[in-house]
Amino acid sequence: MTIGAEMKRVLVMGRDVDHILPMVRERGFQVVRKDPEIVITWGGDGLLLRSEHAWPGVPKLPLRNSRHGIKCAPHEIPEALDGLLDGRFAPTSHLKVEAVVGDVTRTGLNDVIVHNAAPTSAVRYRIWIDGVELGHELVGDGVVVATPFGSTAYYRTITRGSFREGLGLAFNNSTEHVDHVVLPESAEIRIRVTRGPAALYADNQTDGHDLDVDDEVTVRRSPDRAVVLTELPG
What we know:
single chain; 2 domains; six-stranded antiparallel sheet; 4 helices; 17 strands
């Protein structure tokens, strides 16, 4: 399956995109601000994450204008737009992860994070994986649950590794050594805060949700997927 000219409604997201819009229109696409069929991001990986939060599930074509965008293709803009018209891009589905506490849900393409809310104070927490407690109370800056897509981001800065399948559990700056672990995609992780202050974040969202003592966060794969367009070989 490819995605191409039959999808006409295009939203372009990023800074300094005025020079891109005429090229989009010249190829017969309709530039829109809502209800897009394709979202083109002109920036780096952070912009791709923000676009997925704004338009979840809509196919994304990430174009890089920064050396930091390892998830974004280094295409020239005209070539990428021509590739859309010619059907040279195929949708790739990516796992997302969700964290639920009470009636609050945070969903990440890269990861969800329980983090200390005060830089001068560690967070204490306990973890259960599929109902089995992982050791004892942990102390540190928090815990990251990452997807394969996100394993090259914050997860890798902690573990110095990445993975291709499942969910990755990484312990950030723990006071004692705890092995990081890659779990099956079906795993359910419960995190209980035993001493805060702490907060729950997803990806690069800035609106963290404050966590109180005894709050439990349940983390699992999301029923929703992200779709990123990748160029077909040849």
